[in-house]
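Hi R.,

Here's the input for the magnesium ion complex you asked about:
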Amino acid sequence: MLYLEQIKPYALLVDERTAQPTRVFKTERVRGGRAALLLADKEGYLRKKVLTRDDEPYLRILEGQPHMQRDPAAVLGCLLGGAVGDALGAPVEFMDWPAIRKEFGPRGIIDFVPTYGHLGAITDDTQMMLFTAEGLLRANVRSEARGICHPPSVIHHSLLRWLLTQGMRTCAKPNEYGNVIEVGTDGWLFQERRLWASRAPGRTCLNALGESTHFGHLAENNSKGCGGVMRVAPCAFFTSAFSTAAESSHMTHGHPTGYLAAGLFADILQRVWLTQIPLADAVLESLQENEHREGMEETKRIISTVLESSRRGVIPTPESIEALGGGWIAEEALAIGLWCALTAKSFEEGVIRAVNHSGDSDSTGLIAGHFLGLIHGVNAIPNRWLEYLELRDVIEQVAYDITYVPYAFDGEGGSQESTVIWDRYPGW
Ligand SMILES: [Mg+2]
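And here is the predicted structure with magnesium ion in place:
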């Protein structure tokens, strides 16, 4: 008899009735002694399977090797948490606090409300976060296969695929080598038609990506909109989080605050992920290490302010958030999301605070959700949100790939598993 509690993430599970091995990503005990499992098939795609006690005698574990030292539930929590915050804030992104209060009552919006024709619809923030993750994975595959890679340029290539999903064209002007930029449309994420939806995409991102003449083309604008910050959370799970996040943000946002705030965001997440220190300590460490970077002053000032406020036990309100800013620009969005995360007793409390103010609610909700989902794990996210979250399966798949692909890929032309990975994340 095999007890489901013994099945650890990444175990290869064989059901003797089908003899098909699947890899476990997540197990969860559900009602009636049943277990809900997220399993990856041999192509690497996740499937949901509900098992009962009656199934247990037929299950066998072939291998239980952990591929990651840290709990994968934190990666899943981080990505799903961000998307949930994005979806909760989406209906009120363009509303000020008095209008939100008038429509949803004194606590503001506390549940998903249909927007873009869906309950739990995500916005451009989550779309771009997913394409950033795709770029990181493709860069990882590339460096393993070829030994040479500039991850921000590969992320840039992925963001250009996102541009195509928005019905936009890439730049027709030749670059300095006389070539016109050519965007590859391979890989599985681009084929996911549910991502081909316009969800109030930021003009700065659309324009900068539409003007790129080569991969790695830095933005020729002076924008510090929050579009560079809200997409970089996946960088936290790969090496050099700060520089990868900052450099890939620089492809769309030319103002140092625009991309340095992105670097700081990913760096703080990475510190929490790797060492599990309290969020406030991670912020302090990250500030100490990065405050001397040129152009960091604005970000440092506002992040220090919210760190100090939370230390004094000052809880954010719609009014005090407004005094800090609207979150439309990078350092404000990071500060608002961070303040709400630092002062929250639960995932739910922090994310609700982060979306109820006169400002860019989906982005500040996403930032708070990424922090709180990472800290508290996926099980802390209320089911009433997870259940209706648009693209939940795609986000789960990307989270699994982040925790698995870098460990499983052993080079182009390597194992059968590597061939499958290369198909899904071609290394360019
Ligand atoms: Mg948005």
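One thing worth noting: The first strand starts at residue 12 and ends at 15.

Cheers,
M.
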